[in-house]
Amino acid sequence: MRKIQMATPIVEMDGDEMTRILWKMIKDELILPFIDLKTEYYDLGLEHRNETDDKVTFDSAEAAKKYGVAVKCATITPNAARMDEYHLKEMWKSPNGTIRAALDGTVFRTPIIVKGIEPVVKCWKKPITLARHAYGDVYKNTELRVPGAGKAELVFTAEDGTETREYPYGNMFAHTVGYSEHGKSGLESVENFELLTSNAFFLEKLKNEFQDKKNQGDSVVTTLDADLQQTAYQAMGDAKGAVLVMLSKPDFDPNRVSKDWEYLNTDVNSALLNRATQGQYAPGSTFKVITALEYIRENLGTEGYSYDCAGAIEQDGTTIHCFGGHVHGQVSF
């Protein structure tokens, strides 16, 4: 029998655990014998997502936008237990949320009618198509894990009255947010007054006083883009000393400052140092681009420009030598 030919490939998004086995059976027994299947394959299994820092999920979403059609198997959205089971680098977000946020639009769901499998409602003879919002913005909500019963505010207050400040993004915004134990740094230091000051209506404050409740501090809003920050964080990998989108490595987990304080305070790599704002780096040769550009703007037609470097130049009674006393001779742009 001649197989049905495909002009455009579909995006194949493999999944986790049993769904991988079922999808392979469906392909081998119901699709491949009849269709000359062309796919662009992406492994969205949790282990591979972890290996690629979830880049494979973003790549599959871009492929779906390119080809316009995709088949996705069920995937695991990890929780704390899965973090330990799969030894994950971090608690990766739902692939469905990532893909939907990238695609935008609406999801249409239509059941496949199969002879011999009757619907519960016998009078339903045709499939019902459901359309639902699928922009994925719900997946951008911040998740917060608390250790037990209590009340969640800017801090977690346990039943015994002890308070724990939670940082839902962990290491990703470490040097921006800073820490509030063993001193303060970052926003915790700069915006400490605003975070502890409440501008709530005075009657609300009075009501809280009578009910023995704390007044919620004011909010501090930054212009930082969490998605862009995550992209930069993953792109930087294990690099140390580099700065990218208000990000500095090595970093630390603000949730563990108290537990890790002895190590952090003696760390030879100075994980507590925010190199984006506290590091002191001489501009060096990087600034030569600026001075050269200014010269070109003031002196048009520099295509044939050259300069005879004698190893030093005198300006206003001060002699400036080239590094190491080196004489470069004739140089050009």
Q: What do you see in this structure?
A:
With 333 residues, the chain is α+β, with helices and mostly antiparallel strands. Helices cover 31% and strands 14% of the residues. The chain has helices at residues 18-31, 46-51, 55-67, 80-86, 95-103, 174-177, 186-190, 192-196, 202-210, 226-236, 257-266, 288-298; strands spanning 10-14, 39-43, 70-72, 106-109, 130-133, 150-152, 155-158, 163-165, 306-309, 312-315, 318-321, 329-332. The strands form five sheets. It has a three-stranded parallel beta sheet with strand order 2-1-3, sandwiched between helices. A hairpin with a 2-residue loop joins strand 6 (150-152) and strand 7. The longest helix is centred in the first third of the chain and has 14 residues, at 18-31. The radius of gyration is 29 Å and the shape is flat. The N and C termini lie far apart (68 Å).
Low-confidence runs of at least 5 consecutive residues: none
* Overall residue-averaged pLDDT value: 82
The termini sit apart by 68 Å
Strand content: 5-15%
Helix proportion? 25-40%
Cα-atom Rg, whole angstroms?
29 Å
Content-based structural category:
alpha+beta
Count of DSSP strands: 12
Give the biggest sheet: 3 strands, parallel
Strand order of the largest sheet: 2-1-3
Note the total helix count.
12
- Order of SSEs, N→C? EHEHHEHHEEEEEHHHHHHHEEEE
Q: Given the C-alpha coordinates, what overall shape results? A: flat
Instruction: Specify the oligomeric state.
Output: single chain
